[in-house]
Amino acid sequence: MKKKEATKRCSATKVIKKKRPEKEKVTKVQVVRRHPTEEERKQFAKEKRRAREYVTDKQKTAQLLKEAIEKATRNKGALRKLWVKLTALFRLLSAWAKGEYTEVSLKTILWVIAAIIYFVNPFDAIPDFIPGVGYVDDAVVIVFVINTIRRDLDKFLEWERTQK
């Protein structure tokens, strides 16, 4: 039963293509439930080790965040189902890096940074340039991280609402 419940908590996006006379176009992104593959886990573990460098260097963190926001904006259509969650991670990291939000553990920040590094890296488990599936592994990792840090992310979102 626990395995089935865990599967429900982990989801990713899958791109569906619809044939059109002129060419194939991405028309829909649907939620696909699965856990990270072994390759995705290995790559993410590597990114978690790299994340430690960013925790101590706020300029490096700001640059990573800038790259992630630019990449996400360029690919907003493909990331449509993930957009709200992904941008919440960006805002959490930004607020932490600026010193505006400090009620978050270092472990959570490491997870967020690792997920963003994974997202920015075009040569992860499934290279991003592969049409239709390039962001599926990124989505799996991002959702996995969001599920892992759910409480801290919810606290941040509540804090963010009180700041407006």
What do these coordinates show?
- By secondary structure, the chain is mainly alpha-helical.
- The chain has one domain.
- The protein is 60% helix and 10% strand.
- The longest helix is centred in the N-terminal third of the chain and has 18 residues.
- It is globular and about 35 Å long.
Give the structure's gist in a few sentences.
This protein has 164 residues and is mostly helical. It is built from 7 helices and 2 strands; from the N terminus they run H-E-E-H-H-H-H-H-H.
In N-to-C order, the SSE pattern is: HEEHHHHHH
Q: Overall 3D geometry?
A: globular
In which range does the helix fraction lie? 55-70%
Number of strands: 2
Number of helices: 7
Taken together, the total number of domains comes to 1
Distance between the termini: 41 Å
Strand content: 5-15%
Runs in which pLDDT lies below 50 for 5 or more consecutive residues are: 1-32
Please identify the structural class as seen in this structure.
mainly alpha
Mean pLDDT: 77
Give the strand order, joined by hyphens, for the main sheet: 1-2
Radius of gyration: 16 Å
> Tell me about the biggest sheet?
2 strands, antiparallel
